[in-house]
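Database export, one record per block. Field names are fixed; values are copied verbatim from the stored entry.
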Amino acid sequence: MKKRIGIAILLMIGGEENFAQKQRETFEQVWTGYFNQTRFTNRWGMAMDVQLRTKDDFFDQLSQFLIRPSIAYYVNDGLRLSAGYAHFRFYPADNHRHVTQPEHRVWQQVQWQTKYSHNKTLQTLRFEQRYRRKILNDSVLAHGYNFNYRLRYNFLWQIPIHTEIKKGTFSFILNNEIFINFGKQITYNYFDQDRFFTGFAYHTNTSDYLQFGYMNIFQQLPAGNRYRSTHVARVGYVQNLDLRKKKS
């Protein structure tokens, strides 16, 4: 009897492991983007990013396109409050192979920067309201939107490799961002995803840089028992413009 119970337990463990493996998806993507921050006065500025993301096998089809403008209020040089809008286009996926799904987001955030002697950290807390167009079937959008809230916390650590940031130098970057869902339509996936990035910044001047590296996204899908791991090659150009009048 004990032997039979032991065999049954082993079979159950093996079955659970196989089940878990079947519920985990793996993708390889490329994310490209342009990120701009422009400061007009000591108090006001704006920002915008435009991104294009592939679907799988790094260069197979498109997955998402987004444009995200915002306005910013500078409490001081290290603390900034922002509010903005984002428009997403999700290109055909398994559940809607012949239709592109739009999403509208309204968002607010607080961002604070801490500078040390030879490195700096940047932390961001963002609150999003997401409106995703409903899908009727494989090729037709439905009327109305699904809605939920999402909270994002991002921590970035930038370490210059050289003693001075100037044209032609590099910085090392570590970055992690966690996403939490909530709202009436969220049932199983309150934890949405975690994004971990490591890479480098190549400084084209003292304020702008080309960022490139590897990102892993671990995401829990709406069903609750399905997970997605995405390996991402990420590259983007970051431009910081300061249009304030210089004091003589």
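Remark 1: The domain at 28-242 is CATH 2.40.160 (Porin).
Remark 2: The chain has one helix and eleven strands.
End of record.
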